[in-house]
Amino acid sequence: MNSESQNHILSEPGIPAIQSVNWGGLRALYMKEVRRFFKVQLQTIWAPAITTLLYLVIFTVAMSGPGRTSSDHSFATFVAPGLIMMGMMQNAFANSSFSLLVAKIQGTIVDYLMPPLSTGELLAGLNGAAVTRAALVGLAIWGAMLFWPGVHVIPEHLWAVLLFGFLGALMLSLLGMLTSIWAEKFDHAAAITNFIVAPLSLLSGTFYSVEKLSPLFRAISHANPFFYAISGFRYGFLGQSDSDPILGAAVLITLNLVLGTTAYLLLRSGWKIKN
Fold this sequence. Notes:
The protein is mostly helical. The protein is built from eleven helices and no strands.
């Protein structure tokens, strides 16, 4: 091979060979993460779906009755969309908070840092896989609820279901990535799950209507970003919610931009990853 042919293959020293998005590398990272959780799908997809269905059974039996909701639907129908959204968000967080943390603990973080992937591509691949897991969990729960007696889960506004499902899953995925960057051991990630994610999920209006609360606790609920994800998702199924869907979408988009920018800057700086 002559030197002229080599110049078409090899870049000059200091000039990146990949001038734009590394689609091949991005796809490889995404598929690696998807296959990782899909190998143990009984634990990562079906177990969360069954747990969520148990929530539906227990809370429907224990709390169903007049005055629990502000809508004309049954309590089971009211609570079902919130349970789907809660399951999606929690599994998005679990997936993204696991990847980098395990790599740091096992000393395999180089597998993420050495490939020719930019910070944005690394961020997109990891969060894309987490959102995919959330979508699969949501579909599994929704499919089971379709055959559940007394539950109506046929969407009235599909755009709201897709939009708020994506925004809610992405929000928790980005939060999970920030957690995996900051955490140094599994106890740190578990603390975020137990003291932030779980309480915000349970206090977001999943099992009750926020409009039935006192003004003080209603104001506190409106400060919870999880509330807007679940309320908007419920609007997609029931056609009514405790908040304006446009306001909820604006809050979630803004929060995702803040979380995404923070995660991008931390990944690019290498804080607690390259040090």
